Amino acid sequence: MPMPPVKVFFYGLFMDPDLLRKQGLTPDKPIVARLDHYELRLGERATMLPTPGEQVWGIVMGLNEQELKKLYAPPSVADYKPHQIVCYTEKGDKLNAVSYILPDGYPLLPPKNADYAKKLLTICKKMNIPPFYCNHISVMISAIENKGNEEK
């Protein structure tokens, strides 16, 4: 009997169902959603930190437990831990989901370049994340690039 899907709030590159399918996973229908009182942080990867008044936008999709174990098995993402969260659709409907977040105090290395952020922006646009949030990521890209130029 197939395992029921777990609803997962993705906020990084895993928001792209095509990327998940290329890994042999079978995500169910993507839903644009926001998580209140968290802030997106970008390093070599993305994570979220609890931050009053902030929002992270992403995609909720279902994957079964086996698929989640496979997705989070590689060393580059193995430190992400599942957290129960409540997020909201664009219409305001409440969704109970799981989101994978780096543990509190995890040393998030600063990005070497803006490549990850640029990929994230492309996916956000593809998945119809609200334009104001895409603009927020564009500002992050500029900050990363400016910091890189200062260090040269």
Please summarize the sheet with the most strands. Answer: 5 strands, antiparallel
For the record, the count of structural domains works out to 1
Secondary-structure arrangement, i.e. CATH architecture: Roll
Quote the average pLDDT: 93
Radius of gyration: 15 Å
Structure, explained:
The protein has 152 residues and is of the alpha+beta class. The chain has a single domain, classed as Hypothetical upf0131 protein ytfp (Roll), CATH 3.10.490. Helix content is 30%, strand content 34%. It contains 4 helices and 5 strands. It has a 5-stranded antiparallel β-sheet with strand order 1-3-2-4-5. Helix 3 packs antiparallel against helix 4. The radius of gyration is 15 Å and the shape is globular. The mean pLDDT is 93.
What are the SSEs and their pairings?
Layout: E1 6-10, H1 17-22, E2 31-42, E3 46-63, H2 65-71, E4 81-89, E5 94-101, H3 115-126, H4 131-150
Antiparallel strand pairs: 1-3, 2-3, 2-4, 4-5
Helix pairs in contact: 3-4
Descriptive key words:
alpha+beta; Hypothetical upf0131 protein ytfp; 152 residues; single chain; globular
TL;DR?
Helix content is 30%, strand content 34%. By secondary structure, the protein is α+β, with helices and mostly antiparallel strands.
